[in-house]
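Late entry, written up from scratch paper. The run itself happened at the end of the previous shift, but nothing got recorded in the book at the time, so transcribing now.
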Amino acid sequence: MILQALKEYYDRKVADSESDIASEGFERKSIPFLIVIDRNGKFINLEDTREKIGKKSIAKTFLVPRSKPRAGSLSYETTFLLWDHAGYVLQHPDDEKAKNQHATWLRSVKELPPELNNYEGVAAILKFYDSGGVKDVKSHPTWNECTKVLSCNMTFKLAGEILPIPCCQAVQEYVKQALKSSSDVNDENIKDKVIGRCLITGEVGEIVRVHSDTRISKDSKKLVGFQKKSGFDSYGKEQGYNAPVCKSAEFAYTTALNTLLKSSPRMLVGDSVTVCWSQKSSDLENQIADFFSEPPKDDPDRGVRAVESLFESIKSGAFLADENEKNRFYVLGLSPNSARIAVRFWIVDTVAGMAGKIKLHFDDLRIVHGPRDKDVFSLFRLLVSTAAQGKADNITPNLAGDTIRSILGGLKYPQTLLQAAIRRIRAEHEISYPRAALIKACINRLTRFKNPNIKEELQMSLDENNTNIGYRLGRLFATLEKIQIRKFTQGGGKEPNSTIRDKYYGSASGTPATVFGTLIRLSKHHLSGLENVGERINFERLLGEVMSDICDFPPHLKLEDQGRFAIGYYHQMQAFYTKKEKQD
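Output as recorded:
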C-alpha cells in the first residue's frame, strides 16, 4: 500500500507540467563543483555552484542520469554516468580506495558506446585526463573549498555552455534510449535479467535486485532491502527478489519519496521524519508542515496563520466539500535504522478527515495565557518544553514520532508525553504555558476515549465547578502561594526569592497529605500579616470555596491527577493575573 501510494504520487507529479520531479532514468542531484574545460580538454576553471543561504552553503541541483546502488566490498566497481564524487572523478584523497574508484571511472568513460563517444563533451573529458588535467584542478585556488565537502559530487562543463555535460541533450537522449531498450523483457541480449510480476503495478517486467537509497538522515538507507542470504529469503529468492518490484515502479516510488523528503511538507521532529501527501492536489497537502513545524525566523507567525486558515476553512465548509471527502490523504512516518529505514507509522484518511483531526489537536491545546503569548504552538516547541534544559537533544526518544502519530491518527496522546511534561514541572517547579497546554490536551483526550460523552473535562480557563481532588488541590496550592507573595509585596515590597512552589511543589502534587497541613498553618501566618483587611477577607473566602469539596488530603495522587493538579494551579494563577490586569 505504501509503495503503491508513492507511485501514485510520482505519476501525479509527472503529469503536472509545473512539477520539477525527475523523469525515469534521471534524478535531481546537488553538485557543488563543476570542472570547466574547453573542447580540447584544457582545464579552464573550478566553478563553485553553492549559494550562501543564511549560515549554510547550498549547492545547485541538476537533473543528471540516475545513480546506481553501491554495496559490498566491490562497491568501487560501480560508477555513475559522467558524474560522481571526487574519489572517482579526481582520485581524492590519494589512497588505495580512491585509486580503485578512479580506475573504474576512467574505464567507464572510455568504454562508453559510440552514441556518446562521438559527443564532443565526452571527447573533451577524455582529452582532459590524457593531458593531466587532474593536477591542474588540484592546484586551483578553489580546490581547498572542494576538499571540505564530504563526498563532494562533481562533473564537467564545456566552457561557454550553460548546463554540465551530463545534463546535455545528447546524454539525456542516450539514457532514454537505453532505458527503453532495457524495458524489453524479450530482449535476449540482456544477461542476468530476472523477469517477474511487479507487486506494485501487477505488470510483468524486469525485477530490481537492489533498491535505491533514500536520505532521511546523514546516511542514505533503503526503504525496501534484504540482506544477502538472509533468514527472510523464501521460495529460493534472494535480496530484492523477495519483494518483486519492476524497475520503473522502483524508480517511481524512490523518486517520489526523495522528492517528499526534500520538499516543504516534510516534518522533522526529534528522531522522526513525517511526510504527507494527498491522492489529488489539496491545500492541506501544502499547509500541513506549517501546522507543526517551527516557523522561520523571518516569518514567526506562519504557523498561526496556517491554523487560523484551517479553522476558517472548516467553519466555511471548504474542507467538507465532496472532493475532500473522497480525496485520500497519506501520512508516512520514518526513522533511520542501522540496516534500513524503519516505518514508524502509516496513516490513510481523507483530506476532510485529516483536517478534522488536526483541528481537534489545536482545540485540545487551547488554554488561557498571557497577552503576549501566541495562540498556537509548533509541535517542536511543545516537545522541547518537556526536555531537560529546553534542548531538542534531550527530547525523549521516540516521543516525537509517537506524538505525531497520535495527532494525525486521532489517537490518545502517548502516556510518555504526559509523564515527560509532569516530570519536567516537578524538576523545574515551573508550569509554563506550553506545558499546561500539553497536559490539558493529554488529559482531555484520555477522558474522551474513556467516556465519549465528555468532550472536555478541563476547560480553557478557571473552572470553579470542577471538583476533582487533583484540580482542587492545584487551585489551593496556587492560592496559598499567592497569599505568601502578597505578604511580601504589600506596600511596594519585593517578591521573595523563593516561594512554597520552589520547596513544596513536588510533594504537594505527588503526596499531598505530607505537606498540606504544614502549608495551611503557614498560610495563617501569612494572612495575619496582610495589612489590607478586605484583601485578607477575600483570600479567606477563596480558601473556603476551594476547600469546600476537599474532605481529606490523599496520601498519593496518580499521574493523571498530578496533571490536573498542574492545570488547577495554572488556571488559578492566570485568574489572579487577569483580575489584576482588569483592576489596572
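The first strand starts at residue 26 and ends at 30.
(Scratch paper discarded after transcription.)
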